[in-house]
Amino acid sequence: MRHVVVIGAGAAGMTAAIRAGEAGARVTLLNAHPKVGLKILMSGGTRCNVTHAKVDERDFFGGSRNVIARILRSFTATQAMAWFTDDLGVPLKLEETGKYFPESDDAQTVLDALLAAAQRVGVVLRSGARVIQIEREVEGAWQVGVQRMSDSASFGAAVHAFGGTQWELPERAPDEWIAADAIVLATGGLSFPRTGSDGTGYALATSVGHSIVAPVPALTPLGAADTLCEAAQGVTLDVELSFWRDAKREATASGSFLIAHFGYSGPAALDLSRHWNRAVADGATSGLRVTASFAPGKTRESLQESWLAAAARGPKLSVRGHLGEWLPLRLASELAWEAEIDPVRPLAQVAKVRRDALLTILTERDMHVNATLGYEKAEVTAGGVPLEEVDSSTLESRRAKGLWLCGEVLDVEGRLGGFNFQWAWSSGTVAGRAAGRSVS
Ligand SMILES: Cc1cc2nc3c(=O)[nH]c(=O)nc-3n(C[C@H](O)[C@H](O)[C@H](O)COP(=O)(O)OP(=O)(O)OC[C@H]3O[C@@H](n4cnc5c(N)ncnc54)[C@H](O)[C@@H]3O)c2cc1C
Q1: Where are the beta strands (DSSP E) in 246-303?
Q2: pLDDT tens digits, 243-272
Q3: Are 198 and 155 in contact (CB under 8 A)?
Q4: What's 149's DSSP letter?
Q5: Mean per-residue pLDDT for 137-156?
Q6: Where do the domains of the chain lie?
Q7: pLDDT tens digit string along 1-59?
Q8: Per-residue DSSP letter, 408
Q9: Ligand 1: which atom is nearest the Cα of residue 155?
Q10: pLDDT exceeds 80 at position 159
């Protein structure tokens, strides 16, 4: 039986290993970190948001959406749910937000089920095995160079050593070489580098001729120098955020939003961060802005109408009382003060110019964002190996035959809500099956 080596035992690599094993290949799964599945364990607040009720290519960024759609169609969210429930024995539950979690509310259940499935099809898992070189002798005959990692090995440091867009493999000889007929590269991106996803995968990909779309942190909190962060720290509400570049609105993100002492977190802020970081990576040094509408779905005109109607109905109704019908009171007061209105003032007594100022603040307030919190807090990495460099139906490399890529190492990342794991299950299934069949 011929041999597939899968590099990286995250969500994508474990899926690929299972699929290659199911296709009849002998499979070795190598993981740099001595502990496998760390990201699965920390995901979804340790509950693991496995997938989403409605997934399509518009939930993703990076490479061609046609290619993303094709891969998602090959193993859909519905199939992923059935896989977990029926095959892996992990019943899922749907939450109001459309997110699927294991019924156990415990990410360990997901990890255990994947490891058990891998074991059933004979996958040999080796953790603490960091691949630092891959070489193709002739077509279909690879050598995989492995560095053995001790339990106390530090991974975070490697990110700083790599940095930017120059990807270099560590200058040391491998401790051992493993022969392979096919390789699946599933090394993830750069986020949470202490889990072992430290950028070696990019260096391995470039060593066989791939390019890398400059990686930037995504789904990471936004940093801000804003008085609101102190005044309304801890407040959570639904907002619509806009990302502006040189007075052009380039992206929006809606959903829950948390005001924190350092800036902003919550799904809306995390979803917007990729746009900020991409613009900075593209060289933008000024002209970047994030604004918030604290009345998502409502226009300035409709807010004004409801203000006037409320003032007519209750001449004593205060600004705070009116805004407090849909905004947390602490935030309502703070925004009123920003418009130079005493929050206890009756609506009917507010001058038009001040009311107009408040309506602007409510619908398009500058949030004074000046940075993001980077890879240390990023749930995913935007950028990676371009989709043009892989076959769009099998994910085999167009640069090196016999090498397949899946998961976050590719230039694909999803919004918050289970989309990134869905990409791991879909792309891992496609790459693993194709690699397995190629050698069986
Ligand atoms: C805090 C947090 C919470 C998240 N929550 C969710 C969620 O609830 N839902 C969701 O959909 N997504 C979530 N994500 C995103 C999701 O975890 C990732 O998109 C997904 O795990 C990526 O899978 P992957 O297999 O491609 O990469 P990774 O999970 O990064 O796995 C890569 C693996 O490769 C190994 N590796 C790296 N380099 C080498 C090498 N040279 N040799 C050998 N092994 C190597 C690493 O040790 C690692 O185990 C979260 C991420 C974080 C950080």
Answers
A1: 248-259, 263-265, 288-293
A2: 999 999 999 999 999 999 999 999 999 999
A3: yes
A4: -
A5: 83
A6: 3-218+378-439, 221-373
A7: 699 999 999 999 999 999 999 999 999 999 999 999 999 999 999 999 999 999 999 99
A8: G
A9: 47
A10: no
State how far the Cα of 246 lies from the Cα of 367, in Å rounded to an integer.
Answer: 16
Pairing, β 26-31 against β 124-127: parallel
- Kindly report the CATH class assigned to 3-218+378-439: alpha beta
Kindly list the protein residues whose Cβ atom lies closer than 6 A to any atom of ligand 1.
7-13, 30-33, 39, 42-44, 48-49, 130-131, 186-188, 191-192, 195-197, 200-201, 379-380, 407-408, 418-421, 424
Residue with CA at minimum distance from ligand 1 atom 30: 188
Spacing, Cα 410 to ligand 1 middle (Å): 12
Task: List the one residue out of 59, 147, 54, 58 whose CA is nearest residue 100.
Answer: 54
Residue with tokens 């849909």: 326
Cα(334) to centroid of ligand 1, in Å? 39
Residue 388 exposure: Cα atoms within 13 Å on the Cβ side: 3
* Ligand 1 atom index nearest CA of 406: 26
d(CA 130, CA 145): 8
| Statement: residue 160 has pLDDT above 80 | no
Q: What is the DSSP string of 321-387?
A: HHHTTTS-HHHHHHHHHHTT--TTSBGGGS-HHHHHHHHHHHHHEE--EEEE--GGG-SEEEEEB-G
Q: At what angle do helices 352-364 and 300-313 cross, to 10 degrees?
A: 130
CA-nearest residue, atom 3 of ligand 1: 43
Report yes or no: 165 and 281 within 8 Å, Cβ to Cβ: no
